[in-house]
Design a protein that fits this description.
Largest sheet of chain A: 7 strands, mixed
Radius of gyration of chain B: 45 Å
Distance between the termini of chain A: 130 Å
Structural class of chain B: mainly alpha
Shape of chain A: elongated
Number of strands of chain B: 0
Strand content of chain B: under 5%
Oligomer: heterodimer
Helix content of chain A: 25-40%
Helix content of chain B: 55-70%
Number of strands of chain A: 22
Radius of gyration of chain A: 37 Å
Low-confidence stretches of chain B: none
Largest sheet of chain B: none
Chain lengths: 601, 136
């Protein structure tokens, strides 16, 4: 048998060499893995491990037609790592400054100073102090547009890079500002839908635990844990941008003409309670929320109370008709200022114009204070109070965006002897514009008090509907027949009553004017009023309810700011626009239409 | 039978050791190659993720820009800027049609044709009956 190529000595030497190599490797491994394990692990963890947070994109807010009302846009904060900057790239700094819209000298100074301090820290770490943190980020510009950042990236300046973030934007500016609310600079939702629907909108940040290389690039193969980001859901509101724009335009007109303290307009669908538009004056631009006064941020439609005035007469009239105590033809003496009630003689409130005998229909049409008081007396305190409660006064409407007050409606035990004569005309009671609006809505829809609905549905980021909000009935205020009868009586307000002249032929406008003296320091003042017109149309088939409420309108020549002068014109103007936009057909076709359809010339 | 000489055993041992080293080396290279493939795949995935996120971000940007351009105030400004004089219809301009629009348009067209041809057009009332083509 062959002896092979190796002698015993060679083989022994080779074996010893191989074994020594293995042994030294083993020893080194023991040192690395056991003896110095903790130190090395700490160093590696610090140098290579990174946790990257993936910020969730906040959901959008859309109107009922799918138009974007609020969305999140990315922006880039551009800065530089001074330790990575190269002197050779300095020739491209002027171009960088131009793109970032900054003075060249500013960019030059920032970057050179950063480079100098980085160089100093690298060359003499002890001189700069061991505990001093090295500057690895010099901010150059905030909120840089994506397109601009693309061009910055194309410059390929080593060490200049951006950090992305989200910024909340409201593409329509002031449109529906009080409904939307806003998100502040810290990313906290402050008011409106942003705040109350934050749970749906905000989403959930994701994060990735991974490692990075020397150039701080992620080593994707070393991802150890990954929690995917969950973007926020989209919220679809019931409002319609076009309707909202109409009412905001109308508010601008009111503000220009009357310079009020505040004004509110609400438009809704009486059959579902869905709010189609809700706006206030003064308003604000949520993109610039920090530049406005706190008063402008208030959604007066729900946060402030007013005495409803004559619009409250629907309570007494509706209740008396509903109880069968009167018919529209029942007559009352509205000329006599005194009346005996429960054995006591009471003074009835003043009228704006002298009346004599008036029917219930005329009391509603001409807004007789004494007539309304007598209707309430027929009912008695408790029944009148019960009906007022059923109309929703003195209780929250459960408005989905919160922030609302309950209003004031004291129980009969707390009334004085005159309250039964004053409350039916809308004094001694306070309500939010939304409460008044929903009360009128109950008359329009057959007597049902609905919850005002502002959220239509919630959709996930892929557009799938997660939750749909349906109309909610809160109470049956009147029998449907009574509501229909009262609706017809309210049409006479426009055709021959306090808002005469504001009818639109064929469309059966129905409503109630309101003019309330303001209560200041416990006294009613005669030169400051809350003017309102709350109504709906067409009366026999109501499709839309509109409330126009103007607080403290300044009339030229100090004239009283009657609801018929301040609010009714806006109601009519809005009605004309809504008829076209919502394609509301006339109940009775006007004559010109019939001629045209007949083809006669 | 004679036992094999010691050198032969050592030779075999060396040969096996070398074989083992080659085998181990192959395994090691295989592992490195696999790691490299994992690295490449992970990087490709990450690049794709970044691209998808970028595309989504740009879509959102475009949505926001479209919404800004389409807001009612912007449209009104463009309407006046371009002197288009567009506006919502007013009620007197609207005639609601309850019959078939095709028949109505046909009747209107016929009426216009006959009126143009007549010298005394407009002096007397003309009425028309529209007969659908299917009856012929």
């Amino acid at each position: 048998m062959s002896k092979g190529f190796a002698s015993n000595a060679r083989m022994t030497l080779l074996a010893v060499g191989v074994l020594t190599c293995f042994l030294s490797i083993g020893v080194r491994l023991v040192f690395l893995q056991v003896v110095d394990r903790d130190n090395l692990l700490h160093y590696v963890e610090k140098a290579r491990r990174q946790i990257m947070v993936d910020h969730a994109r906040r959901g959008a807010i859309l109107d009922a037609k799918g138009n974007l009302l609020a969305t999140s846009r990315t922006f880039v904060v551009v800065g530089a790592d001074p330790e990575m900057l190269q002197p050779d790239d300095a020739r491209r700094w002027p171009e960088l400054a131009q793109l970032l819209n900054l003075p060249e000298t500013q960019v030059d100074n920032l970057l050179r100073r950063g480079m100098a301090s980085a160089k100093l820290a690298q060359s003499a770490p002890a001189a700069s102090g061991e505990n001093e943190r090295r500057v690895r980020w010099v901010k150059l510009a905030d909120e840089v547009d994506e397109r601009v950042y693309d061009r910055v990236a194309q410059l390929a300046i080593r060490g200049v890079y951006g950090q992305r973030g989200y910024k909340r934007v409201y593409p329509d500016g002031e449109l529906a500002a009080h409904i939307l609310g806003f998100v502040n600079h810290e990313g906290a939702a402050v008011t409106g839908a942003e705040r109350h629907l934050d749970l749906y909108l905000r989403g959930q940040d994701g994060w990735i635990e991974s490692e990075k290389d020397g150039a701080r690039r992620e080593l994707a193969q070393f991802r150890s844990r990954e929690v995917p980001v969950l973007n926020g859901d989209d919220v679809v509101l019931t409002i319609d941008s076009v309707v909202q724009h109409m009412i905001e335009e109308e508010l601008r007109t009111i503000a220009a003409k009357f310079d009020p303290h505040f004004a509110t307009i609400i438009v809704s669908d009486p059959q579902t309670g869905r709010i189609l538009g809700m706006a206030n004056y003064p308003t604000f631009n949520p993109n610039d929320f920090s530049k406005v006064s706190v008063d402008s941020l208030r959604n007066y439609a729900v946060t402030d109370i007013i005495e409803p005035g004559s619009t409250f007469k629907i309570v007494a009239a509706g209740a008396a008709l509903d109880q069968g105590l009167v018919t529209p033809a029942t007559m009352f003496d509205c000329g006599n200022p005194l009346i005996t009630y429960k054995g006591r003689q009471l003074r009835l409130p003043k009228e704006d114009e002298p009346f004599g005998e008036l029917s219930v229909a005329d009391i509603v049409a001409h807004s007789s204070n004494r007539g309304a008081a007598q209707l309430a007396m027929l009912l008695g305190e408790q029944r009148f109070y019960d009906y007022a409660r059923r109309y929703g006064f003195g209780a929250s409407t459960d408005f989905e965006l919160g922030g609302e007050v309950r209003g004031i409606l004291e129980p009969p035990e707390k009334w004085d002897s005159l309250t039964i004569t004053r409350m039916p005309m809308g004094h001694s009671v306070a309500a939010t514009p939304l409460q008044i609006h929903m009360a009128m809505s109950a008359v329009a829809n057959g007597g049902a008090l609905l919850r005002p609905q502002i959220i239509k549905e919630i959709r996930d980021p892929e557009g799938n509907v997660l939750r749909t909000f349906v109309p909610e009935k809160r109470a049956q205020v009147l029998r449907p027949s009574t509501a229909a009868l009262l609706a017809q009586l309210l049409t006479r307000v426009v055709t021959e009553g306090t808002a005469k002249g504001y009818e639109i032929p064929g469309f059966e406008l129905a409503g109630k004017t309101g003019t309330t003296e303001k209560l200041i320091n416990g006294h009613y003042v005669t030169n400051r009023h809350v003017s309102s017109f709350v109504g709906f149309f067409p009366a026999s088939k109501p499709q839309v309810v509109v409330s126009v409420i103007v607080d403290d309108a300044k009339m030229p020549g100090g004239v009283t700011a009657y609801g018929s002068k301040v609010a009714a014109p806006s109601f009519k103007h809005l009605a004309e626009q809504l008829i076209q936009y919502l394609d509301i057909a006339p109940v009775q076709a006007p004559d010109r239409g019939l001629l045209a359809l007949g083809g006669a010339r | 039978m004679k036992p094999p000489p010691a050198n032969a055993i050592v030779n075999q041992l060396v040969a096996h050791t070398l074989g083992l080293l080659v085998f181990g080396g192959s395994l090691g290279l295989g592992a490195v190659w696999m790691r490299q493939e994992i690295f490449s795949a992970a990087n490709r995935n990450r690049t794709l993720e970044v691209k998808i996120a970028d595309a989504e971000r740009r879509l959102d940007e475009i949505d926001a820009e479209v919404a800004t351009a389409m807001n009612p105030d912007s449209l009104l400004t463009r309407n006046s800027g371009l002197r288009l004089a567009l506006g919502a219809p007013r009620e007197p301009q609207v005639i609601r049609v309850n019959e078939s629009p095709e028949l109505r348009l046909a009747a209107k067209l016929n009426r216009e044709i006959f009126t143009i041809g007549r010298p005394d057009a407009g002096s007397e009332t003309v009425s028309f009956q529209v007969v659908p083509a299917a009856y012929h």
